[in-house]
Specification:
Elements lengths: L2 H10 L3 E4 L5 E4 L2 E7 L2 E6 L11 H18 L6 E6 L6 E8 L3 H9 L4 E9 L4 E4 L2 E4 L1 E2 L3 E4 L2 E4 L3 E5 L4 E9 L5 E9 L3 E5 L6 E2 L8 E8 L1 H11 L4 E4 L6 E3 L4 E5 L2 E6 L14 E5 L3 H11 L3 H21 L3 H9 L16 H7 L4 H9 L13 H21 L11 H9 L9 H11 L3 H13 L2 H4 L6
Antiparallel strand pairs: 1-2, 3-4, 4-6, 5-6, 7-15, 7-21, 8-9, 10-11, 11-12, 13-14, 14-15, 16-18, 17-18, 18-23, 19-20, 21-22
Helix pairs in contact: 1-2, 5-7, 6-7, 6-10, 6-13, 8-9, 9-10, 10-12, 10-13, 11-13
């Protein structure tokens, strides 16, 4: 995910004041149409993309939808539909929000909310560790469900100010790891500390490399007191070595976690220079992982041929659905390819190690979350919310059922597998018994699609790589 999309999303839906025809002034958003329907409401939003480079507009639309979805979830409105739409000429981009039992005013209230943004340095600590906060050292005292820093006790999931000798620092106790360590976030700065985002093409922009990656870079301006706080917090971490092919060293044991409306949206490595200098205009750079990089990771962690074929099957189907829904095939390909990255080494802790693996590779939070979500209520509590996540959740098990159906046919080929054959095997609980039919059913319900259609589209995707899957057979 391009971090510029975050800033663009905040600007795209931000409310502003306008003068009406009658001379009055009112608060307005980019909601250009509202329609109260029988039993519900629908509004159409036109994001302000005038200052967003053309190649970044799709990412901004996607991030805006994620921001709105987070706000909707905070209201407990699970039945809200939020989707992108385009004008007939494709030169205008809109976002449609629709919900039964709501009014246009209620939907406007969600859009009008100002996003709450903060950036925190992650930290994994043990009982007795010393942590520097606000000019003072605090010894961490662990109590399982809470931690104590000085006179401040912080429960799991809580964030509280810890008073140092010079200033207070908000600290969040995220969770307790299985190894008995404490995951913390030290809040470095909040939205009000960011005084500007530089989108000057000479210092910011998105490029394209030969490997298909899109590296990005942009500069932000931060209030000096926040920059000083960042430098002080950075003292808690050692400078690391130089990565191969790079000349920059990064802080060890931490990342800068970006959070919007209480949802983690990305994590960034932090250059070691932040320990030594007060930097008020940091440059943020990075890039989305490529298919080539994803495949190298797959080969690093997965050796079993059947698991590799499963990864290739899921990848192919994800690409197929991305093209069907008008989404980014490269992104969906990468996520499908590495979705089971930790399964071979940690089958009993599936989806529990993938965050560690991908964070070490500086992968975007969006990718990590999508992969974790395919284990929802099986091995994680990360619920699939985006279309990409729902598709992965649905077709992961379904590809296995379809492959098994193909292998028991006389041709041993997926090329002549029909929907009715898959449905027949679906009903036979003893057939491919390890495949969880309920997960597939739940995923299809999330997508709001017909079961036969999902099965057919999944077959279509797998047929495109039948040779790689060993399912070409003799058909």
């Amino acid at each position: 995910m391009l971090i510029t999309a975050l800033m663009g999303a905040l600007l795209a839906i931000g409310p502003h004041y306008v003068e009406a025809e009658d001379g009055t002034t009112r608060l307005d958003t980019n909601v250009i149409q509202g329609l109260d329907l029988a039993g519900g409401a629908r509004i159409l939003i036109e994001p302000d993309l005038s200052d967003v480079p053309y190649e970044e507009r799709q990412s901004t639309i996607e991030q805006t939808i994620r921001t709105l979805r987070t706000r909707v979830d905070a209201y407990g409105l699970e039945d809200m539909t939020i989707r992108p739409v385009s004008s007939l000429t494709a030169d205008q981009n809109f976002i449609q929000m629709e919900m039964a039992g709501a009014t246009t005013e209620e939907l406007r209230e969600i859009v009008d909310r100002e996003g709450i943004f903060k950036a925190s340095l992650s930290m994994e600590a043990e009982d007795g560790d010393l942590i520097l906060l606000g000019g003072s050292e605090f010894e961490l005292e662990g109590r399982n469900e809470s931690i104590v820093l000085g006179n401040t006790e912080i429960g799991v999931g809580e964030e509280k100010d810890v008073e140092g000798s010079e200033y207070s620092v908000p600290v969040e106790f995220v969770n307790l790891t299985d190894e008995g360590r404490y995951n913390l976030r030290l809040v470095a700065y909040k939205g009000e500390d960011i005084t500007g985002v530089d989108i000057d093409p000479s210092r910011s922009g998105v490029g394209r490399e030969q490997n298909g990656n899109f590296p990005f870079q942009f500069q932000v301006s931060i209030d000096r007191s926040a920059a000083e706080r960042f430098r002080d917090l950075a003292q808690n971490f050692d400078a690391g070595g130089v990565s191969p092919g790079e000349d920059t060293t990064y802080l060890e044991g931490t990342q800068l976690v970006l959070i919007l409306d209480n949802e983690v949206i990305s994590s960034l490595n932090v250059a070691s220079v932040f320990r030594d200098q007060v930097i008020t205009e940091p440059s943020i750079s990075g890039g989305e992982p490529t298919r080539e990089e994803a495949y190298e990771l797959l080969k690093k962690y997965v050796k079993n041929d059947s698991q590799i074929k499963h990864a290739l099957a899921v990848e192919a189907v994800m690409v197929h659905f991305a093209e069907k829904f008008g989404e980014d095939p490269e992104k969906w390909s990468v996520i499908g390819l590495v979705h089971d990255l930790d399964y071979e080494l940690h089958p009993e802790e599936h989806c529990q190690w993938v965050r560690k693996y991908l964070t070490e590779e500086n992968w975007p939070e969006e990718y990590i979350r999508a992969i974790e979500s395919h284990g929802w209520k099986i091995c994680t509590d990360v619920e699939p919310k985006e279309t990409m996540e729902k598709v992965l959740y649905t077709i992961d098990e379904l590809t296995g059922l379809i492959a098994a159906t193909a292998l028991v046919r006389p041709s041993k080929s997926i090329m002549d597998v029909k929907v009715k054959s898959v449905k027949k095997k679906w009903k036979q609980k003893e057939f491919a018994a390890a495949i969880d039919r309920e997960v597939i059913e739940k995923g299809i319900e999330m997508l709001g699609m017909d079961t036969s259609e999902v099965i057919q589209e999944t077959i279509n995707g797998m047929q495109k790589v039948a040779d790689k899957l060993g399912l070409k057979g003799n058909a």
